[in-house]
Fold these 4 entries.
Entry 1:
Amino acid sequence: MSRNVTVTTENYPIARAFTISRGSKTEAQVLVCTIFDGAHRGRGECVPYSRYGESLESVAAQIAQMEQAIAAGITRAQLLTAMPAGAARNAIDCALWDLEAKMTGLRAHRVACKLPPRPVETTYTISLGDPEDMADQARAAAGRKLIKVKVGSDRDVARLHAVAAAAPNAHFILDANEGWTEQNIRENLLAAAHYRVVLVEQPLPAGADTILNDIPHPVPICADESVHTADDLPALQGLYDAINIKLDKAGGLTAALELRDRARELGFSIMVGCMVGTSLAMAPAVLLAQGAEFVDLDGPLLLARDRAPALHYSGSIVSPPDAALWG
């Protein structure tokens, strides 16, 4: 039976401005790909990212270019070679996972996971700002065990001092979003080791990070912008201790599972992250996050409202998706 594809743009306001070293935004703009076979609908959500040259329009156009292949029944495995990694492939891949689950009655986790999926504990992200503002954010989140702190600008040591004092029982992940330099990375890493930081994410720009092979890692360092697919891993050995896998970078759950397994073989720790999106984008990532050392799937927690039905969050604990949402 032929399949048809629709792509819709949806906007979700963010509870407060979300700021990283590259800028701020006040809403999450997502694309939802729906594949309909006449009886069942599969959905996948993606978040185009300008850092990788993506826009809502370009990603929608990429999905539209695949309409004939999807109508002809392209498989997830075939999709890996038919499209490059990125948000468009992610949306189609996750929609195919969801469609397959609905067509067969076999939940996606039965295919994606070796064991029945369990709830996982996510970080909670506080935005980049001045130290006083970030201390206020940390104080509001102080009951959470793990807080992700956006840094990557001047005064990062002061920011870290402020948030550590405001959340004295928490541990932290620092995410510099490529914002540190060769001149300040050593000082910042030493401060991280002092202030209960368990991971530092992408301190230097992708492609300008070879210095990581020559300096101490008092705190484990995680690649984000430097890693998209399994092909990137060999060049990261010796530079990074962990990798952050995001479905929008890897180009879907199928490729992300391959990336995770290969990274394990090479000795990397695993972080599963996200863009700021809704529960539909997080749902397949929860399956990927089973057994991960670090989970950063707080996108819906940062929104003023989520879609319905949604994932269930209890504090920082997020449960696997129900079939009504995805998979």
Note: The mean pLDDT is 96.
Entry 2:
Amino acid sequence: MGTMQIDVTEDSFRLAQVFTISRGSRTQADVLTVSVAEDGVVGHGECVPYARYDETLASVTGQIKAFDGVWADLPDALTAGAARNALDCAFWDLAAKKAGVRVWDLLNLPAPQPEITAYTLSLDTPKKMQMQAAENAARPLLKIKLGTPDDMARLEAVRRGAPDSRIIVDANEGWDADVYADLALHLIRLGVQMVEQPLPAGADDMLAEIDRPLPVCADESCHDRASLPKLRGKYDMVNIKLDKTGGLTEALALKEAALAQGYGVMVGCMVGSSLAMAPATILAQGVAFTDLDGPLLLAEDRDEPLKFDEAGVHAPSAGLWG
């Protein structure tokens, strides 16, 4: 076995338009690209450091550079998060390339089939969100970013703009129990199929005390398998993101554990390139909701981007990942 070399670089991808959630706006996706080289073969992974979890480009870069072990050391060396994700996915890519097979072959899984992905509408004025919805009304599944005092007007506007699309809602921890209880029946009336993280992760116990007339999905409250015991009675679904679980390895284990405990599964993403989404296409097979639209929000992408069409998001080419 040759000497292993790990490199990390910062990359930025321009967004097609300003992307806004309840916490703020951005005009580009800033990511870290990890390369793991051994015996002349290079594996790649991508992560998106997230300020909500006290991650920065610099802090995550430091974690990656400090890692000097082998793949099996990752769970003990790094906590679940962006740094471990990029490394884990790079190791999977490296292993597949060295074996001359695809990652799903290593996992003894069938080749991923296309999965319909949600398309996220950025938080904006009701008028502009209606315009966004109308422009994307042909998409079967829309995701709306909410979490402000004016959410009903926005939701009504989106439904007018896209009368036939399925809708899911992400409040990004922006509501309290009273607001959610007031909105829930209106969400159902407007055909919303699921609400994601309505209450702050540290203040979500009320979800066990109030009616949940439509499925509630844990995002910020669910990172890896260790999160599951605290979700009982409060959530109906979990949103699995590679940057939260610390890579594909833990994400697959979390999916299996969540399904075994009766949770529905959503597979989501941060705003990153096709390289970040590629491993998640394996994870997304057969789940209730797939939200891997990061590349659709970009004005530029990797050299071999994921394919998106009416069938959904396709498995990556070997030249991209895995």
Note: The chain has a mean pLDDT of 94.
Entry 3:
Amino acid sequence: MSAPRIRAPELPDTLEWFNTTNGPIKLADCRGKIVLLHFWTYCCINCHHVLPELAELERRYPDNLVVIGIHSPKFPNERIGDNVQKAINRHYVRHPVAHDPSFTVWKQYTIKAWPSIIYIDPEGYIVGVLRGEGKAKQLDKMIQQSIQVAEAKKILRTEKIPTRTKPEPDLELKFPGKVYAGKDRLFISDSGHNRIIECMPNGRVAHIFGSGAPGLIDGNGAEAAFDNPQGLVQSENFLFVADTDNHVIRRIDLITRDVSTIAGMNQRGKVKNFDVYDDALQVPLNSPMALEYDEGVLYIAMAGSHQIWAMDQNKQTIKVLIGTGVEGLKDNNGQLAMLAQPSGLSIGEDIEKHLFFVDAETSSIRSIRLRDNHVNTIIGEGLFEFGDTDGKKGVAKCQHPLDVSYDPVRKVLWVADTYNHRLRRLKIINGVLQSVRLKDELHEPGGLSVKGNMLYIADTNAHRICSVDLNSGLMQEVEIFEVESH
């Protein structure tokens, strides 16, 4: 005897809706269509990976599929509707999204983890739940089967659910993710425009790399294409770029302006062993988010696989340096340590050389002693321990920090405490974390770079780069401008 079919519970009236024309959407009005409820939270890298998979299914089945995002926030900052709107725009979400800060729908559907997808057939019954990322092929097969059954029953409907987006203002920058201060140049990941900007410290643009359209194309200057580029680091005449949504590492020759791909396969993957690979172009990467360079080694924060990798530029080899690949907070040597979405890197000297990094999902500031690759947590307690508190370890708390920059003059770490909209200062000598008062408010700052007495901040959600004079405390916006040629 078959189990009874379960009708999908109706969505409550208390939700805040985005990307809709006529307000709330009722599941009853979606009968005759396949409905996917995507439970996500915008901090989660695994949820990010699901979004393009869903977008491709929406393109493939525009008349038969309805995707509804159910945003169930992990962090307090994600409970604010305006911040959710920014995340929707940043990740190009075009389907309707219902904000569920009280977890009402989450509990209604007994969801256990992000991301999860509830599959509802055209008759309004729950077919099942798919947990995690990488379910596109399975979903595609299920959709085809549902369409065939619905056509046979003559219940398939093709009229579209109307949607309406709320675009960001048209500014020079769009969601800049990271910034890097070189010797006499400032480099900006203009992530929302899928390009890299090279400019003078005063903001005058020297060169632009990337056409603006998302893609993976090697070429010269604006002929090249990136997809949500993030981390940047310079070594002599080369600028390295973490091309996050392409899952590759790019290299820009700053003399010839040629852009080339040096690592990754343009497909997401995981490597769990610690072998050394001779051909970096044959190894799958997973959302590289930040870069650092030291003595011929390019360090890569691989946010998607919760690891830090190392690429030897002399030998042209690549390997996992730190992290089991399991998300968590565990100090140990490289092969046993656990990380959680590392998103910022910076080399610094604390008696001996360390690679400092931030783990976004554990809201932690950590370090790798490069002599023996031992990982130590300076600030942070676990996946669900976060806050906005100054002090030492055990007291101090951050909320989803996305970058860190070592200051050799002051022997401190500057921290982009992203979801607290703060700049923090961590004293290396005693491990004390302090908030920094600034003239202007920050809006989910995602990138930092210190050069001498100047600190540059990628104020991501405000679409701007700011500079802070560390001697005077003067904060200014770096006005990005191009000089018209005549």
Note: The helical segments are 45-60, 81-90, 104-108, 136-153.
Entry 4:
Amino acid sequence: MLLPPYVTDVDGSGEINTLDAEIVNTALHAYRGFGLSPRAGFDYRADVLGRAAVDPLVVDAVSHSVRQYAESGEPPRRPITIAWHYGWYNTLDRPPGTQTVRFKGGNYRSSDPQVETTFNELKNEFGVTVDALSWIPRHANNNNNSNYHRGYLRAPNLGTRHACLLYESTLALPFALGRIDFRTTDVQTRFDLDFREMARFLARVRDDSAARIFTLDGRPVMFIFGTHTWGRLPLGPSHIDALHRTIGNALDAFADVYGEPPFLVGEEMQLSAGYFADDRRVRSMLFDAIFIYHHAGNVKRGREQRLRMSPAYIRNQVAILSNTYADVSPLRSRFTGRRLLVIPNVAPGFAKPGHPTLEIDRGDYADFMKLVKRVHMEGHITPHWTGELARGALPAPVYTVGSWNEEFEGHCLFPFEFNLSVPDVQQHGFDAAMALKEVFGWNHYAFRDIHEG
């Protein structure tokens, strides 16, 4: 069994050598247990297969892989994994209907630094590199951002975490008939104010906390939810001009406050294996990269039904990715002239009330992530980004892995007490977390900078 290079790098040093094999040899026959914290003496770095145990198969796999990579000299560049992190939990009472998944540690408040400390330990163990902090202006949610300052930013182990932003544009901006019209003064004014406020928030995180800001191309990363709603359809010249002008002004406003403009990631990936619509193509060129909030985004509100992350579902997702790579390859950012980066989403299941449920199990989820990772490397990174890898523009391949703590939609990665998208629980609520660790390894970047390679 040949492990990926970054999984073979058991100690996370950025090099593969006999020290990695020694760690698993020392940990042989250790078991994690299924409490929130590992059993005393368990070294989670050695659990390279995500099974909560270190057995002779693990020792053999690591030793074999160390020998292979020592000969080839292949660098263990660990992928960057990004999970959405929310600060809007203000009460402990979250009844069914507001939870489709519940944290194994019980309900929590986002203002609690002890909970955030536990979250950070778990993220590092199971391989979440970056926290994309959901950002909402005060007029839409008065507590979300202040909760970060009371909870997330006061965790004593915050220095192990990288952070970026997830701008909730459909909550923040005036929204009518399912669209956001950037020709209106209200939208333009609100957008500019939000970018200034986000710059202040992120500058405070950078300057007054131990968190490290996640950057690409030297700029702080900002994901934007719902950009596919920007502009009335059909997207005529007046809409395109308004979008370009408003975003350009907002980039300058952000840079005035923060010192650098953000690296913008728009939600413009295809939802099906069909045509890459003209409006999506035009909007994509306003960003540095594109993503999708969840690959089940085409699971629309309607009658309750249960879908499965089946081979047919996975084949469809691969087709969508492949079509997206082909359609995006000729596009360039209107602001930088650079190629657009595609960031795939390998979120687990989906169980939002009033929508069809996407069910997973631990094995299918791991297989799905492995396949998407391979397709992404072969279809996008190798042909278009090899020359940029290990540099500021792309220190490693990037993936979004769903939500860490959004309990409403069923794709939480934290260890769960129940999760309606995982009907066949195999690992005591660690099913999604263990699968993630199997594919991506523990978070090496907790103890070294992302841009170190």
Note: The chain has two domains: 5-72, 81-452.
